[in-house]
Design goal:
Structural class: mainly alpha
């Protein structure tokens, strides 16, 4: 669940007329981000949407970034758009 790709998918669905699907995707992603933020006090660059956890260090070629701006920005956009 990389924030820029979530934004692209949500906005693409919206612009294609799939408003309910866009809303469901946006709200599911936002709930995951908010829930993990409540649990840890941070927003990560990317999240594992299956386990609802941030990826472990060895899953990618570079470390997972904490408090990443685009995660915060896309989260804010979802909240402003759907709440």
């Amino acid at each position: 669940g990389w924030a820029p790709l979530q934004f692209i998918a949500i906005e693409g669905l919206r612009r294609s007329g799939f408003h309910e699907d866009a809303k469901n995707l946006a709200l599911d992603w936002a709930k995951m981000i908010a829930g993990y933020y409540v649990k840890t006090g941070t927003m990560f660059e990317r999240m594992n949407v299956c386990t609802l956890e941030h990826p472990k260090k060895d899953e990618f070629k570079y470390p997972v970034q904490k408090d990443f701006l685009w995660t915060s920005a896309v989260f804010a956009w979802v909240v402003m758009t759907y709440f």
